[in-house]
Fold each of these.
Amino acid sequence: CSGCVTSAETVLLEAQSVAELTARLTQPGAVVVVSVSPQSRASLAALHGIPAADVQARLTTALRQIGAAAVFDIGVARELALAEAAEEFLARYAAAAAAAGAAGAAARPRAASPLPMLASACPGWVCYAEKTQSGGLLPHISAVKSPQAIMGALVKRHLAAARGWEPAKIYHASVMPCYDKKLEAARDDFLLPGTSLPEVDAALTTGELQQLLDGWDMGRLAELPPSPLDPLPGASRGNSGGGGNSGGGGNSGGGGGEEGWEARYCLPPGGGAEPPLHGAPGSSGGYLETVARAAAAALLGPGAGPAAGAPLALKAGRNPDFRELTIHPPPPPAAAGGAAPATGKPPRAPPRPLRFAAAYGFRNIQSLVRKIKLGRCEYDYVEVMACPGGCLNGGGQAKPRAGRSAAELLDELEAPWRLPLSRAARALYKSWVGGPPGSPAAAALLHTGYHHREKTALGTVGDW
Ligand code: SF4
């Protein structure tokens, strides 16, 4: 990563340490909550040679024994982020299409939230964009908070209220694949409203979590028994992700018929066990996959896009870290062999193909940014990640030593793809957010903004 870190930021980052978390675990009255990312679970599984699906339950044992009040899987926050990203894309696409219609088909629309929409979950990329790019690029970045930031709000607002915990007494630590997440946790955009309290007090890397556990002689996860996962408030059982616990059986979303968003993002009531959510190849979050599938279904109609359960046909571009996907509309009925229905209206122009890409690593990011600035970027949505190979190659990951890579273990954990919202996440839209994905209530809670930031010469994110 190449954004520069200011001196004020350096102070905030140094406070996010194993020593600080250790002090909070032993501080009388402190309520320590730990949220673990799926990429960290995969990395720990590779390190310890245990199934990735077992890691969360063993971490719950270890962290509770050393004083944590609750341990969560960030997967549930990621599910909210994915549904929000897909809804934001559909809204941007509709606005761009309306602007193009008003200005004439040949005109390139200049919307407030333009296309291509660029993913916002990687703080290395967001930091780079804010500190090196002019304002023109920032509106392209998705307004959706990252899973870490959503988890912060979930813990300090919803969980605190449900458990009767005073937010000021909660110390919320996240476990993430990279050091850049510390910078994100320190952003003043992610303070508990009306206070100076961060919603994520410390982001520790996977390696730092292992160091913490080793310090308490709890680091041999393979030897620990599993513990039941901590329940999220408003979900019927458990939290999403780790160990396949996605909120328990039954439809916790409440009565009534299926609304549009539920049909788009949720398993039907009584739809059986939920397999864990599949991430995109490179496993940086599944944004491209979720946005592409939702857009194909909503904009191109049934029959467009990959079938449920089939993988995305991503095509490697100029290097393995740049991949593309084009989804064509299904052929019109006449071309498919049947006669077009006689409606008396002139036939509508067929929808255009949708174009998606994944751009990982700064070489690919710089090329993408150049094309956007020149108005020559043909994609509708791009999943942008700073690390070549995505989050599994994050600088904070533990190194595998059991003869299996973290990528293999994450594939095992997360295949096959499913609709993004588990019953637990769906229940959160009702019990916490107070509106469906893409609603004003969801935007108020789950979206953020980006600002041009000054950089100094103190060092680069990659130097930490
Ligand atoms: Fe962190 Fe790299 Fe993942 Fe970005 S791609 S969130 S910098 S690990």
Amino acid sequence: PRHDLSNELTALEGTSYGRYKSTRGKWWTKGAVLDIVKVQSDPFAPPSRVHLTFDTDAADLIEEWHATGERRRALAVLLAKRLRKALRTRDLRIDAGGQEMLARSSCEVGVNGSVVFRLGAQLPGRGRRIAGREAARLLCEELPGAADEALAVAEAEAWKWVRHADDVAALREKVAEAGLIGFVADDSMLARKSGVDDRPLAGGVPFASPESMAVTMDLPHAGPVRGMGVGPGVTLIVGGGFHGKSTLLRALESGVWDHIPGDGRDLVVCDSSAMKIRAEDGRAVTAVDVHAFVDHLPSGDDTARFTTENASGSTSQAAAIVESLEAGSRVLLIDEDTAATNLMIRDARMQELVAKDREPLTPLVDLVRSMADDHAVSIVLVMGGSGDYMDVADRVVMMDAYHPEDVTERAKSLAAKPTGRVAEADAFRLPRERVIDPGSVSALSRGKQKIKADGTDGLRFGESDVDVRSVEQITDVSMTTGIGLAIEAAVRLGWIDGKATVREALDRLESELGEGGVAKLSNIRDIDLALPRRYEVAAALNRLRELQIRD
Ligand code: ADP
Ligand code: MG
């Protein structure tokens, strides 16, 4: 690294903005190394990118804090949030994320306790001239000063975060060992401040498990924690409108991610393969085997390779289920609020009025038993409007003024009375495995394609747009970017090679993007990103309108 960035920047005062480019590279700044990675071409362009790296000695963290991957991730999230707070200018921007503890490019703690911050810097200009003294103050004083402040974390606070990381990791292991797919600790606060504010609702009703579903998990730091264990198979959440059904389901959806201490969902976890499924009319579907749900379409289309530019509510939801299973998910989460009714249920009267041979759809209610029994696929379903799932549910939870009650026994005795409904299917078969035609996606990694995330709604690759609004577990814009980069890596590095099935390509992606995955992706493009799961990547790939399947 070079010395005296401050002098260098001051000397550039008043020269043309493009000369900032000469500062690219590594500089010593107060015991840390500042790497000016990308310099914006003018003051109005997207911010420049800088990395600030503290080696083990300079970061001076307690060794136990970085002893495990989970601790390093938690600590990195804490440090990014502390840096955001310490920065007193809008010209330096760090992506500190929201309520989840995700692997992000904005801060990483190394195995040896080194720390890197990666952030955006708006290099100051006056018109098209360099404001060098201001730049020197920004990069040589403000940034290192704020970073020192972030690193000077009180021991008790850092311990709280790393112990929390231990507890959540242990909880996930114990929940899986117990054969459960989810766990909601007593006293959790599931409700959020508002539909646009993901922080916990103050003064809400704390969660309390019904006795019959309660399990106690022994955690390394928190000790014994009681909560509701969600078993495998078919779980039905019922209850009156506005009684908290969707809130419980959303907590499980979000439970695939870890949360920061104090989130209210600190000890709410869900099987890490769980996928929220919803209807999404208008989406493209490419050669998906939906025949279990859809057959004999009036168009005569082959539903074992169902392709459309414009899916209906029901066919889009069928495709989402099949694609999730193909990607390896073994837990599906469905809310009546966002589901296609005709894919969910078909009651006795409708069966009588519309003969089976006139109805292409087989409702999910007739398939979930076989999915659970024959394929170990679990479903958690919110359904307040129809009783037909009582016949096939393993357990029924009623939300009553935000309190869960186990009403399985009552539901079973009701289900014993015949409704006149006849089952429309006897078995579910796992879908045909697909192989992506690499030619159809090769444009995504050609040259300097721009990847642009539009919040959590969309992803633009050069000319193509992917609508991900209905991929509900995407947490924030950085994850959308992470999905884009993961797809680019999969294409460029040949993980999608025309031979590997979708599942095999995702296996490859998952193993390559495990430990060190963030650095790998941010080497492709220096940009704020958060690491998605394989399931979000698959969901975005499946929504690409250019996608083609081999055979
Ligand atoms: P449902 O799906 O049963 O109609 P929701 O889950 O949408 O109900 O919840 C209805 C409202 O109640 C929402 O505004 C939600 O934030 C709020 N809410 C949910 N759980 C709680 C709780 N435990 N304490 C306070 N408010 C809650
Ligand atoms: Mg609801």
Amino acid sequence: THFGFETVPEAEKEARVGKVFSSVASSYDTMNDLMSLGIHRLWKDHFVRSLNPGTRSSTSGNSWNILDIAGGTGDIAFRMLDHATNINGDLHSKVLVSDINPDMLAEGQKRSLQTPYANTGRLDFKVGNAEKLDFVESNSIDLYTVAFGIRNFTDKDAAIREAFRVLKPGGVFAVLEFSHVNSSLFNAFYKRWNFGAIPLIGQVVAGDRDSYQYLVESIEKFPTQEEFSSMIQRTGFVVPGKGYENLTGGIASIHKGIKP
Ligand code: SAM
């Protein structure tokens, strides 16, 4: 049941990634909760709080133009609008949710009907590839977010360059992604969980072992915190502090870059 991703050509990899997410769209929440023991919700809350969307700033005025890439089911977008509205009293900031997979996006669109933002003009959905954001104007975005998405992109550098292009000067590029655990003892337990439990949970809950095996392998292959921060800086972003924040011992991390 090994996915053998290394040996497949890029175009085929893209098709497989597509299949993975079409297959998980409906069981997505259950799987996330089981795989992360519910912690992904806390990470997402923390990510959004740290970005503080909807505050007044010199670039955005009193309304932020936010792009949530690989936004899938709307998890990050809804949180950002909740934060802007409830914490900052901002009723104007908008989020464009984009995802390459129409099934994931349709799930987000469906869920948006249960939020206060349906039919307010504050949420929009658009199918698109992060590596080629033709539908987004240069220098138009205040905040670009991507949560648990960039790991799956075929050409990560191209996606970061596109993020740089669409952001306004002063705009923020923010990534929440699985990362690398820094303690070797903790890592031993974590690896057992990832390679043992996750494909099994995938098989039992989603009836799809291979897709979850792929997800685990993609986490392993993702650059380290330092490497990823260098990629962001090479594109031209200025990174604050050491460039990243570890969550839960490095199981996930947040990277930020500011377009000068
Ligand atoms: N951001 C959501 C969250 O945190 O729950 C969804 C994350 S989901 C694990 C990863 C998403 O990345 C999938 O919906 C998938 O379709 C999307 N994706 C993969 N490659 C992409 C690409 N090149 N451009 C845009 N989205 C992509």
